[in-house]
Amino acid sequence: MATITEAEHLITVQTSARGEGNVIPEKYLNGLDVEWKEMWTNHGKNMEGAHLVTIEEFRRCPERYSFTYPTWTGPEVHHLQDYQVPVSNPEGLITCRVYTPAGPGPFPVHLNFHGGGWVLGGLQSEAAWCRSICNGSSIVVIDVDYRLAPEHQYPIALYDCWAAVRWAHTNAQSLNVDPNAISIGGLSSGGLITAVLAHFARDCFPPLELKLQLMVVPATDMRYVPLAIPNAEPLTTESCPYPSAIFCADLPWSPLARESWFLNYYIGTDEEVRSKVLSDWRMTPVLSPSMKGLAPAHIVTAEFDVERDEAEYYGQLLREAGNQVTMKSEMVQLVLVMLEEEEEEEDDDDVRTKSTTLDFSSTPQPQAHSLGPALQPLEKESKS
């Protein structure tokens, strides 16, 4: 596919007034807790969204455009090592960062596919989460630095991540992991990668049994996302089957305009090509011809998120096909956000508080690897 040009990109960037575009619209205020509103006001309101600039501009100074840009690397782990993993189509190498806990092993292993719309992110963006899971659950975590668009467009990210899964399975002994205790997971676009790879694992020969597919605010159906936001008609129930996408289109921290920005880079702007790609189940997992026999799934959704309803619909499809599915709903897309204290120096209490920001007692990885009690399915409330 051709790389999107700057001219093509600029059709999508003028979507909100700079400076005022990040103010929380009134319709969301009653549903947000005070802590989140305060954090957004202090850290996010005055920053421009990534979708308001070109990818080249974003890459020059990513922390300027995203208030969730990580400022805390996470706790120390027993061992960290980078490996160069061969990939194909096109041939090359990607980095897999392996976090190993203390102990004799062999350990269960979880592969993480970071979020960022197949365009942003890398080994630093979810490092704190990887480190914390490694320590808190005594699991080897492999963070996969798959290749990004626009240089590497669909479906390269999928097959880079699949190569990483096969590499981990093949090299289990040298990695000191159990080849029969593999789980995979990802955030947003990484959640879509996870969903697709669960099918790959089922369909390869011999099948690769996964203990868990963890999908955090996953994209599962982006056919409703318009090519050019300023010239597009507002989403309606006729053009989009997901109420959350219609209601949350102007969400400051995750607007529909950003989804369009991601897709324009990942699958291009040619309408015929986009239609073909979005009709492929590897880009739209809800279209998969068979949902049967997939790994146990845990899906985390956010109440205020464009992709909430498509994620829940995918969970429904998995459950109807007889798969084990658990679901959890959070208020906002806050799952992997960790901010450093503004003070330059922190005392021990600050560090302890930060290190326990995420409660790992209910994370699905240890339960999937028989290291803790199973999660119970949650009944979903209908949302408008």
Radius of gyration, in angstroms, nearest whole number? 20 Å
The CATH class: Alpha Beta
Q: Largest sheet, described in full?
A: 8 strands, mixed
Low-pLDDT residue intervals, each spanning 5 or more residues: 1-20, 333-361, 375-384
String of helices and strands: HHHHEEEHEHHEHEHHHEHEHH
- Tally of separate domains: 1
Overview of this structure, please?
The protein is of the alpha/beta class and 384 residues long. It has a single domain (6-368), classed as Rossmann fold. The protein is built from 14 helices and eight strands. It has helices at 6-10, 26-29, 34-43, 55-60, 127-137, 156-170, 172-175, 189-203, 243-247, 256-266, 271-278, 308-320, 348-355, 364-368; strands at residues 79-87, 92-100, 107-113, 140-145, 177-187, 212-216, 297-302, 325-330. The chain has an eight-stranded mixed β-sheet with strand order 1-2-4-3-5-6-7-8, sandwiched between helices. α6 crosses α8. The chain is globular and about 55 Å long. The two termini are 38 Å apart.
Secondary-structure blueprint:
Blueprint (H helix, E strand, L loop, with lengths): L5 H5 L15 H4 L4 H10 L11 H6 L18 E9 L4 E9 L6 E7 L13 H11 L2 E6 L10 H15 L1 H4 L1 E11 L1 H15 L8 E5 L26 H5 L8 H11 L4 H8 L18 E6 L5 H13 L4 E6 L17 H8 L8 H5 L16
Parallel strand pairs: 3-4, 3-5, 5-6, 6-7, 7-8
Antiparallel strand pairs: 1-2, 2-4
Helix pairs in contact: 6-8
